[in-house]
Amino acid sequence: MADHGQTDLPYGHYGNAIYDPEERIWTFQKTARDEYRVLTRLGESTSTAPKDRDTQTDVNSKATDHEQPLFPSVRRQKQIDALVHRQPEVQPAAGLLGDLLRVSEAVEAATAHHDPARGRLMSFGRIFHETLRRPVHAVAFATGPTGSDIRIELVQMQRQGWDDSRDVWLEVPTPSGIGVTWKGPGAPVQQVHFAQPAEGVEALLAVRLITSSVIFKPVMRKHGSQRLDANPILALSIDQTGGVPHADVVFNPSYGRQFAVIAQRGDLSVWEFTSQMASKVRRIHASVPQNTARHDLEEGWARIIWVASPSIVLAATRTGVTLFDTSTEPAQSTKISLGLSAGSGRVLDVAVISGHADWCCVLTRTHLCYVHVAKGKDGTMEARIAAKMTHFRVENDISLRLQVVSDGNDSLALINSATVPMVATYRTAIDERETLTVQDPTILHLPSDPSVLSKIVDWTMSSVEIRGKTS
């Protein structure tokens, strides 16, 4: 029989037992479901990236159905000729484009189903409405024929429900069509992320590109032909953060004017806007991994989240997870031991548990780990592995991604893949004593088309509201 650690929760095992002498009841780390809760898709899919006819060039548009596909070298030359015809100024460099096009095609083929450097490409937030004098809900997402542009739209609530029930429905946030498109530099956007400050406060928006991270302060103007103003206020170049492309950018959930950037090498920096108009920024923390030369940049993956405290950030690379306390100088760091072997402990994703800022999940090749983070009495950081569950997904599937969303008082950890049409959902609850209880996972089946799976970039449930008739 396999040797399991104290925090492992194998299937069929209920974990640690706790007896409450006052209530005279036993509670277990894993609970049996009284009833199944099933996730069901409502409505049909909507495209957020309409084709731009002005930028589409089909070099084979004159080919007939009976013609054979062109050889790669011939096809590339036709593409170069078409480009020179549209942009004559590139004619002097036309001889150099063949090799560059070959490399570009290889990169596109390698990242067609999964790009580790790409983060979430849709985010909900709030922007200030000058006429209403209050923040209103908005959504930002990557768009355009190459995914290089950003679309920001106001959000309206749309009713959706079930054919067999008219008494209960959902109010679902839906783009209203009122918005603005920010034209990017041409390369695909890597990440879109709204800050999530306290209710009633407008949020900043971060967009991660290949060579920089751009911070926006969107606003709905009173007047003008384009009332929704994207309002970019800062472009943080990779030259300002060590010269390595950024892998993740996030805002401090406790203070929306602070944001953190982690580079593909693991370099971490925390920045803060110092003026009321968010026109000035200063770096308040920076750290470089000790074994910089040994860091593997071939995947370009790293993530960062705030956890437990406004000054504690968790930085994750493929090789491990580390806590940093930015309130100390130099910053105190603590590496979290997941208790897994080197191969099994390869990190694939991290996420904070919704509604519990001192809890987070770490997804590895083999396990879903629940971690509790706190500051000790002496000010040191403490991390406790509360539970580990084997997820039984394909170990070499690095496209596995994790997101944690709220569902009432519970939280759902969603694990999806760009190659397998199935989402595993892990339901958890945390009580006032910081006791974690979990349930065995349920499955949500997705369309089996690989091209659809590879385009799933985000899950959002927290904005959905349940409505019903009153008797």
Overall average pLDDT = 80
Helicity range = under 10%
The radius of gyration is 24 Å
Structure summary, number of beta strands:
30
Task: Provide a descriptive summary of the structure in words.
This protein has 471 residues and is mainly β. Among the domains are: 118-300, no CATH class; 321-330 and 341-454, no CATH class. It contains three helices and 30 strands. It has helices at residues 72-86, 97-110, 450-453; strands at 17-20, 25-28, 122-129, 134-143, 149-162, 165-182, 191-194, 205-208, 212-216, 219-220, 228-229, 232-237, 246-252, 255-263, 268-273, 281-287, 303-306, 312-317, 320-325, 332-336, 347-353, 356-364, 367-375, 381-390, 401-407, 410-416, 422-430, 436-438, 442-445, 465-468. Strands 11-10-3-4-5-6-30 form a seven-stranded mixed sheet, with no helix packed on it. Strands 25, 26, 27, 28 and 29 form a five-stranded antiparallel sheet that branches. The radius of gyration is 24 Å and the shape is globular.
